[in-house]
Design goal:
It is built from 17 helices and no strands. The chain has helices spanning about 1-20, 30-55, 70-85, 100-110, 110-115, 120-130, 135-160, 175-210, 215-235, 240, 255-275, 285-290, 295-305, 310-325, 335-340, 350-360, 365-370. The termini are far apart. With about 375 residues, it is mostly helical. The chain has two domains: about 1-240, Up-down Bundle (Rhopdopsin 7-helix transmembrane proteins), CATH 1.20.1070; about 255-370, Homeodomain-like (Arc Repressor Mutant, subunit A, Orthogonal Bundle).
Length: about 375
């Protein structure tokens, strides 16, 4: 029952995570697709063991063994995903499908198993669960081939991440290369755990000559942990899972002449006429979207033309609007704090601090002087 709950929750977690990965409108599309396929492979592995642990194979015996040989998929998918995250020049090529040839050969050789009828599958599943299913000789060969295959791809992935040929500097991209490497090393370390348990299982099979589902449960426990880790990362830092190669600083843009005047007029319209500063949640990113400029360029524009920061400019507009309201008879019945909330301040303390910084007086002193 415990195993069933673990596998079921991990599958549910994966189903929750898939749309987040696949339907991101920005980021590295190739990375999103590859990590999603990798997630699906792990979910199928968990589904296979859920069917066994829960006894559901008695209802749908055809589901037994649907993930057999999937380790032939994990290595290539992980390796190609690493390339999309670390290599700015990555482009999908149909030749990459050759990486998956061992899996297709495995399925081809086991076609009799996959096409077996319900009664035959049910009997195999019962024998597997009871621990009486014998290991046939060829399986030992496939077992070693799978592990060797996965080890090679893990090694290639580690080498790709640690390679000195990655010459990009951390200042080039919004998500620095060092952070990408750290994330990839964490992910690959999770998969190393799969290789750790396989020698013990292989020795067990050699000694006993029969399958034991508990070893498979342990394997699937690790894939469940990887799914949980991906979900945690997607919530904590979703950009890291499929980071694009947007540069932190684009080509220098000057704000002299017509270009500068155009953006300044647009900024003045947004502030003075639309009064977007009255939104207490106004951020540099939202202002940037309205101006049609990257955030760092908007910050640069404000610094060049006003000699102040984005935050200072917004607060000055709020204070000016507050003073205008104070002088307007229509606001005579309103409290100072109520007006402060209307113009975009979200707390009394921040309002008092900003007001004194801009005017040199507290709100009360200013009102008394009117």
């Amino acid at each position: 029952m415990v195993w069933s709950a673990i596998f079921l929750i991990s599958i549910a977690q994966g189903l929750f995570l898939l749309p987040i990965l696949l339907f991101r409108t920005n980021g590295n599309r190739a990375a999103s697709i590859l990590i999603s396929v990798l997630l699906v492979v792990m979910m199928l592995t968990n589904l296979n063991l859920l069917v066994i642990a829960s006894g559901f194979y008695r209802t749908v015996p055809q589901l037994f063994g649907i993930s057999f040989g999937s380790i032939f998929l994990l290595g290539p998918l992980l390796y190609l995903y690493v390339k999309t995250v670390i290599d700015s020049g990555f482009k999908w090529r149909w030749q990459y499908l050759l990486h998956f040839l061992p899996y297709f050969l495995y399925v081809l050789l086991g076609v009799d198993f996959y096409l077996a009828g319900g009664e035959a599958k049910l009997q195999m599943a019962e024998n597997f669960v009871s621990g009486t299913m014998p290991v046939w000789g060829l399986f030992y060969v496939f077992f070693l081939m799978q592990d060797a295959h996965f080890f090679i791809y893990l090694f290639l992935s580690f080498r790709l991440v640690t390679s000195r040929s990655v010459s990009e500097t951390n200042s080039n991209y919004i998500i620095p290369v060092d952070e990408r490497k750290k994330w990839l090393m964490q992910l690959m370390s999770c998969f190393v755990a799969l290789l750790v348990i396989t020698p013990g299982y292989f020795i067990y099979l050699l000694i006993n000559g029969r399958f034991d589902p508990v070893w498979n449960y342990l394997y699937t426990l690790i894939t469940s942990a990887v799914i949980y880790f991906l979900a945690y990362k997607a919530v904590l830092n979703p950009e890291m899972i499929s980071p694009d190669f947007t540069r932190k600083y684009r080509t220098y843009m000057g704000f002299d002449g017509e270009v500068g005047r155009g953006y300044l007029e647009k900024l003045e319209t947004l502030m003075a006429e639309e009064k977007i500063f009255t939104d207490p949640e106004l951020k540099l990113a939202s202002l940037s979207a309205r101006l049609g400029l990257p955030s760092h360029q908007v910050s640069k524009l404000i610094n060049e033309k006003f000699g102040r920061s984005f935050k200072d400019i917004v607060n000055e507009y709020r204070v000016r609007e507050f003073i205008a309201c104070m002088n307007d008879p229509r606001y005579s019945s309103r409290s100072m704090y109520g007006i402060a909330l209307d113009v975009g301040f979200n707390s009394k303390s921040s309002f008092n601090t900003v007001f004194k910084k801009v005017t040199g007086k507290t709100p009360s002193e200013y009102k008394t002087a009117l």
